[in-house]
From TrEMBL:
Name of the protein described by the UniProt record: EF-hand domain-containing protein
InterPro entries associated with the record: EF-hand-dom_pair, EF_Hand_1_Ca_BS, EF_hand_dom, Recoverin
The species this protein was found in: Elysia chlorotica (Eastern emerald elysia)
Keyword S-adenosyl-L-methionine: no
Alphabetical list of SMART domains matching this protein: EFh
Residue ranges constituting the EF-hand domain according to the UniProt record: 70-105, 106-141, 151-186
Pfam families for this protein: EF-hand_7
UniProt keyword annotations, A-Z: Calcium, Metal-binding, Repeat
Keyword Plastid: no
An MF annotation (GO) of this entry: calcium ion binding
Transmembrane segments: none
Highest rank taxon of the organism: Eukaryota
């Protein structure tokens, strides 16, 4: 029990020290909230051989249960945004920093996060092809449409007009930032990757 308490104290101090508001991965939780999230992380990894590793499948299950995010493709993208270093699993600090962005992050934190989710090949831009893939995966196809891809292509063109502020045919982070600052609804225009405000983590 003393070891667990010492680990918690060290973890909280590390999070508060190394993940201040101006860091690359800010943690905007209080010490008490970080401790609670560490307990939740440990609960999620209960029964696993390594209690400091949250595997992708378990993360997806909890994301679905807690935040009602149901799109498989977007859940994988969210996991990748949380998984710094592309390890294939989440460490406690990945989990806490990711939730900080989702639950208490600033608009700028959330813009960076959403852009990262939407930038499928991590090249710093959201292309027409990436928009098409994102919108096609999140939209429910209606069987009455002759060619559902045509409707998605029309949506891509509409989204591109709103997001591509410098008119170069692709969306950079500054483009995305400017579009969201002008219209906050553009933050999740390519898919739901933030939790509904009425849900909470258990």
């Amino acid at each position: 029990m003393a070891n667990k308490r010492k680990f918690q104290e060290n973890f909280v101090q590390n999070m508060l020290k190394n993940h201040k508001g101006d860091s690359d991965r800010p943690c905007r939780f209080t010490a008490r909230e970080i401790t609670s999230l560490l307990d939740i992380f440990m609960k999620f990894t209960q029964g696993c051989s390594n209690k400091l590793r949250l595997e992708r499948v378990r993360f997806r299950d909890e994301l679905h249960k807690s935040f009602q995010i149901t799109d498989d493709f977007l859940m994988d993208r969210i996991f990748r945004a949380f998984d710094k270093g592309s390890k294939g699993y989440l460490k406690p600090e990945d989990f806490v920093c990711g939730l900080s962005c989702l639950l208490v992050g600033t608009l700028n934190d959330q813009m960076k996060y959403c852009f990262q989710v939407y930038d499928l090949n991590s090249d710093g831009y959201i292309s027409r092809e990436e928009m098409f893939h994102l919108l096609k995966s999140t939209l429910v196809k209606q069987s009455t449409e002759e060619d559902p891809d045509e409707g998605v292509k029309d949506l891509v063109e509409t989204a591109l007009k709103k997001l591509d502020c410098d008119h170069d045919g692709r969306v950079s982070f500054p483009d995305f930032q400017q579009a969201v600052q002008q219209d906050s609804l553009m933050l999740e225009c390519l898919g739901n990757c933030l939790p509904n405000h009425s849900v909470s983590i258990r």
